[in-house]
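Researcher: Let's do a round of design. I'm pasting the structure tokens now; please hold your answer until I've finished.
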């Protein structure tokens, strides 16, 4: 199993932490608000409480904060992230869900990677799952699919093993430049939610034929 530090106190952080603990992983919760951090760790049961700005205990660090502040958080931790695998779960979409707040030739994950110290490896993952869908897990006997992208093969293997410990399926989509495609999938899901499905109780996944 893995040692996981989750930076953030929102719905994604809670859902990932709960599934990680159920999968036998060691989980550290890190947030800027000490009271809320302790409350979340206590509610989860079994999670430890980290200190914002201090070196995360986990070998894998989940960046579960809004994209707008994600790169700044990585820069704040600086060399404390040296040698860590950083999972970027963000979707850098505009408030109107009609585009992205990043350059056309980049992705949120690539922008975060530029802010990370040398020796840290950013892997895109979990951005195509709504937090409440992630919290519930597999539905009707079908596993949830998690698409990942990253430049380091070993880092992706570690993230894949973590994903599988949650009872989910990991699909490697390629190098980190593929994060842009995964962020487009996130935007696609928001479009489906707003224009045809009309709710967020769904996920996109792979069906193998034959």
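Researcher: That's everything. Go ahead.
Model: Designed sequence:
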């Amino acid at each position: 199993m893995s040692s996981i530090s989750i930076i953030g106190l929102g719905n994604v952080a809670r859902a990932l932490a709960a599934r990680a603990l159920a999968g036998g992983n060691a989980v550290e919760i890190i947030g800027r608000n000490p009271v809320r951090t302790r409350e979340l760790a206590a509610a989860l049961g079994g999670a430890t409480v980290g200190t914002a700005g201090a070196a995360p205990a986990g070998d894998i660090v989940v960046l579960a904060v809004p994209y707008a502040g994600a790169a700044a958080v990585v820069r704040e931790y600086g060399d404390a992230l040296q040698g860590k695998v950083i999972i970027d779960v963000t979707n850098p979409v505009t408030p109107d869900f009609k585009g992205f707040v990043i350059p056309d030739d980049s992705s949120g994950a690539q922008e975060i990677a530029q802010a990370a110290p040398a020796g840290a490896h950013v892997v895109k993952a979990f951005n195509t799952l709504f937090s409440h869908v992630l919290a519930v897990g597999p539905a009707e006997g079908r596993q949830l699919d998690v698409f990942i992208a990253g430049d380091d093969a070993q880092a992706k293997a570690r993230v894949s093993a973590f994903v599988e410990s949650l009872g989910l399926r990991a699909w490697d989509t390629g190098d980190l430049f593929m994060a842009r495609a995964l962020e487009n999938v996130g935007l696609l899901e928001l479009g489906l939610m707003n224009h045809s499905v009309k709710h967020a109780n769904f996920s996109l996944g792979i069906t193998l034929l034959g």
